[in-house]
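Here is the promised in-class demo. Please do not try to memorize the tokens; focus on the logic of going from shape to residues.
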């Protein structure tokens, strides 16, 4: 980084083992005050475990975490005063109304925000008197975030906040998260959607198999590919006759099942060369697509696998 930003979270060498299996293998990162920090990775990468250690739900086997100046191993009570947490499996009291559960949670804290304003901010005003069990998935998720905000925390942890939501509900939640950032909160969220990470996050840590394999801004991560375009295609009849690294302009070659992905910063040269070579070998290309390189490609490039696979 060019200049020192204020680190509101400092993580050093965090390790978590489940028996003989190490789910988080010694990761380090800082989160800056006021940023949206994304932890991106496929299922099982260790994202939830990392979050759970930071919020005091699991004890790290090694390493330290300092949040808002407090040590997660020694001062978790203090940590809990400055953080708000929404986990994947928040269970809500289904028979209470939206307003009632917020009042209940608020009563647990010394400091609390104005409940009606909070309900309004989470776009739940017309559900204020509705029972929780009657809410949609998106509304329940927004309520879970409201509960995380009741004591006006500085830092908010959101574990896969939009998983399972329809596109419109996802977008509503994105708006809410960006507004929270505008209001000065620091947000740490996990996701396995790269579009979400790209839209929301100032910086992204990419995790894979318990390791942190990259950390940067979304645009720097994509830039690190050194290719701005991806060309995807298959052969009508599977063939490995062509050496893709010989295609003009190709920087990297990825495979996704029987499809090829060529990364290039000279799209025109690559397409011309690809089509020329294929014709020469009498290979027929199908499903040919070109697109701008994305975070998904960064992941494929680093691991040889797709984020979408298990
Ligand atoms: P997801 O997107 O599915 O939540 P994740 O990146 O959050 O994935 P974790 O939930 O942190 O991943 O899990 C990391 C690894 O640790 C996985 O292989 C998981 O099976 C394993 N794991 C998680 N919790 C436990 C547990 N309580 N006991 C044993 N293994 C566990």
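The designed amino acids, position by position:
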């Amino acid at each position: 980084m060019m200049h020192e930003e204020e680190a509101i979270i400092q993580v050093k060498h965090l390790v978590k083992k489940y028996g003989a299996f190490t789910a988080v293998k010694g990761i380090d990162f800082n989160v800056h005050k006021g940023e949206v920090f994304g932890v991106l990775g496929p299922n099982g990468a260790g994202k939830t475990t990392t979050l759970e250690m930071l919020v005091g739900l699991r004890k790290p086997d090694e390493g330290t975490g300092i949040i808002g100046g407090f040590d997660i191993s020694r001062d978790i009570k203090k940590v809990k005063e400055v953080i708000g947490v929404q986990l994947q499996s928040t269970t809500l009291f289904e028979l209470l109304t939206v307003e009632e559960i917020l009042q209940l949670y608020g009563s647990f804290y010394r400091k609390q925000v104005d409940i009606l304003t909070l309900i309004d901010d989470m776009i739940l005003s017309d559900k204020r008197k509705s029972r929780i069990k009657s809410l949609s998935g998106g509304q329940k998720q927004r309520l879970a975030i409201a509960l995380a905000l009741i004591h006006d925390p500085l830092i908010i942890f959101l574990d896969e906040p939009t998983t399972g939501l329809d596109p419109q509900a996802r977008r509503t939640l994105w708006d809410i998260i960006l507004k929270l950032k505008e209001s000065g909160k620091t947000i740490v969220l996990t996701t396995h959607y790269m579009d979400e990470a790209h839209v929301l996050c100032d910086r992204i840590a990419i995790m894979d198999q318990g390791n942190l394999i990259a950390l940067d801004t979304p645009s720097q991560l994509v830039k690190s590919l050194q290719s701005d375009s991806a060309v995807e295609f298959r052969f009508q009849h599977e063939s490995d006759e062509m050496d893709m690294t010989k295609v003009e302009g190709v920087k990297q070659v990825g495979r996704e099942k029987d499809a090829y992905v060529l990364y290039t910063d000279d799209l025109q040269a690559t397409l011309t060369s690809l089509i020329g070579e294929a014709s020469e070998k009498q290979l027929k290309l199908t499903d040919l697509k070109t697109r701008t390189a994305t975070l998904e490609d960064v992941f494929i490039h680093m691991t040889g696998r797709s984020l979408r696979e298990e």
